Amino acid sequence: MKQIKAVSLISGGLDSMLATKAIMEQGIHVEGINFFTGFCVEGHTHAIRQKDKDKPKRNNSLWVAETLGIKLHIIDIIEEYKDVLINPKHGYGANMNPCLDCKVFMVKKAKQWMEENDFDFIITGEVMGQRPMSQRRETMPIISAESGADDRLVRPLCGQNLPATLPEREGWIQREQLFGFSGRGRKPQMALAEQYGLSDYSQPAGGCCFLTDESYSAKLVDLWKARGTKDYELDDVMLLKVGRHIRPNQNFKVIVAREDGEGRFLQGYKNNYINMNCASHRGPLALIDGDPSAEDLYLAAQIVARYGQGRDAEQVDVLVRDLAGNESTLEVKPLAKDKLPKEWFV
Amino acid sequence: MSRYELDARRLLCPMPVIRTQDRVKQLQIGDVLSVTCTDPGVMQDIPAWCRINGHKVLETQADDYQYIIMLEVGE
Questions:
Q1: Does residue A155 fall inside a structural domain?
Q2: Which of A3, A4, A88, B12 is deepest in the core (most CB within 10 A)?
Q3: Which residues, listed in sequence order, are joined to residue B59 by a DSSP beta bridge?
Q4: How far is A219 from chain B (nearest CA, A)?
Q5: How far is Cα A243 from Cα A259, in angstroms, rounded to an integer?
């Protein structure tokens, strides 16, 4: 008899972990798949910022796979994801999160993987009513249909609330061993975790995607507005996670490291951006994004000086490196706090 | 058995894991791959990925700014 195989979308959170376990319990061979969009919260800020250095750094999707004893395939979808984010058919959520289009896209990619690897069906940890945009009764059939997964998409945690899928009709899995969870409450999931003997699991408070974050979304919108186009590269996405972003004018912004970890991270971008730091006093590294004039660079240097130890000095020397690596020094008076309007902070 | 190197510096997790995964797919069982990274998260993530997928971590090295993981490709 053929071994039935399922591919499970593993986010690293509890729901996909439980959904996977529920299907494994029915004797199905399961492998995990995890998609990296560039906006995944997973570890990034943690890795960049110094203050969290003592906390253990783990990738929760890998950890879930290891706990369950399954293989995990991590897929880079950064390029393909751009179209999802820039042109979401179903629009954005509260911020720049295109959750429904994102879920459709990921299930579609999982279906492609399933077909290429001779697997039989797809598992997600969706729970009806769990998320306001993508996990509602009305959106479940949209995801199944638009992804092309149709009745090969199984949601074990709320499957009893949905029409029977192909694996149920074929007898590969038993419907009565699925669950009927619904709503935003977490108690049924926590009880099931206990039943499975899973005590250590990730519970991200703000979701797993930076696009659900108001501050991050504002920076992304600002970037698109300043460039006059809704495009981005991975470096842009990464830099929006780091530093203070200060935009005095539409044609340039200053990204100032907030601490040593961020400073070290920004060092890696010195060849790609005009950059500056205080030479006469200790102070942070800053990148200049955009097309600044000489006057703009002077203002940027005053801003950078304000965040160094010379903030109260009459004059600070700021070392500026252009894109060709040429160095020059600007002698500036640090910008006073009241000359730095709130509106400049993105 | 052949030895290979992979430069995953300046990448944040999970990109070093993805690059490692993609490189390993091109190698033979018993080949050794040395991955150089700057994200400290790789010290957890690449060994975890190796354990899940049946590869063996031979050696890890770390200083303040760089992390090297040497692995042997398994079945």
A1: yes
A2: B12
A3: B70
A4: 20
A5: 8
Average pLDDT over residues A276-280: 97
Per-residue pLDDT, A57: 65
- Structure tokens given for A23: 């299907």
Amino acid A226 reads A
- Tell me the pLDDT tens digit for each residue of A184-235: 888 999 999 999 999 887 765 456 789 999 999 999 999 999 999 999 998 8
Let me know whether A195 and A312 are in one domain.
Answer: no
Long-range contacts of residues A307-312, Cβ cutoff 8 Å, at least 24 apart: A307/A244, A307/A256, A307/A283, A308/A277, A308/A278, A308/A281, A308/A282, A308/A283, A308/A284, A308/A334, A309/A278, A309/A281, A309/A282, A309/A283, A310/A278, A310/A280, A310/A281, A310/A283, A310/A334
Instruction: Please tell me which residue in B9, B11, B13, B41 is annotated as part of the active site.
Output: B13
Residue A232 domain-assigned (yes or no): no
Q: What is the CATH number of the domain that holds B12?
A: 3.30.110.40
**Residue A318 near residue A329 (C-beta atoms within 8 A):** yes
CA distances from A25 to A2, A13, A16, A262, A339 (A): 17, 19, 14, 44, 63
CA distance B52 to A117: 18
Token pair belonging to A11: 């986010």
ipTM value for the complex: 0.90
Of A190, A210, A230, the residue that ends a domain is A210
Of A47, A70, A76, the CB nearest to B13: A47
Q: pLDDT at position A183, please?
A: 86
Per DSSP, helices labelled H in chain A are 14-24, 44-48, 60-68, 78-86, 99-116, 139-147, 166-169, 187-196, 214-227, 234-239, 260-267, 294-306
3-state secondary structure labels for all residues of A25-41: CCCCEEEEEEEECCCEC
φ, ψ of residue A331 in degrees (nearest 5): -100, 115
CA–CA separation, A222 and A156 (whole Å): 40
Quote the number of domains for chain A.
2
Distance CA A116, CA A95 (A): 35
- Which residues constitute the domain of residue A152? 5-210
Number of Cβ within 10 Å of residue A297's Cβ equals 21
Q: What share of chain A is helix, strand, coil (3-state, %, to 5)?
A: 40, 20, 40
For residue A88 the two structure tokens come to: 């979401």
Which residue blocks in chain B are alpha helix, DSSP H?
A: 15-25, 42-53
- The answer to whether B66 faces chain A, any CB pair under 8 Å, is no
Query: Least CB-CB distance to B40: which of A44, A57, A74?
Result: A57
